[in-house]
Amino acid sequence: MFNKYLIPDAQNLPEGKALNITVEKYNFLVTKQQGQILAYENLCPHQKKQLNWSSDPALDEEGDYLKCHHHGALFSPLDGTCITGPCQGSHLKKATVGIEQGNCYLLFA
Ligand code: FES
């Protein structure tokens, strides 16, 4: 059985952009890539810190990668793989996203 949490305004998220949402004690990065809404736990595998601060978008300057602002690790927004940085080869933890009646939800077991 899943609990579901609405991701506010996910439908209006521009392609290649990211936003943060907090659910219970967890923070997530939500991004739209190739028309798909993807979500990752906002926790860098390097030192288990949030990738970004407050409203910082957690993207690199070009908006191509999710970026950890502590030590510069870059992650593929499509699958969360660290492509360069101190945790290269590791992954952000992907969260399950569901769509119901046009709304996007984070799903938790
Ligand atoms: S904590 Fe993210 S790169 Fe070091």
From TrEMBL:
Domain Rieske: 5-106
Keyword entries, A-Z: 2Fe-2S, Dioxygenase, Iron, Iron-sulfur, Metal-binding, Oxidoreductase
Keyword Aminoacyl-tRNA synthetase in record: no
CDD domains: Rieske
Coiled-coil zones: none
Matches recorded under InterPro entries: Rieske_2Fe-2S (IPR017941), Rieske_2Fe-2S_sf (IPR036922)
Pfam families attached to this UniProt entry: Rieske (PF00355)
Gene Ontology terms, MF aspect: 2 iron, 2 sulfur cluster binding; dioxygenase activity; metal ion binding
Keyword set includes Oxidoreductase: yes
Protein name per Swiss-Prot or TrEMBL: Ferredoxin subunit of nitrite reductase or a ring-hydroxylating dioxygenase
Biological source species: Marinomonas polaris DSM 16579
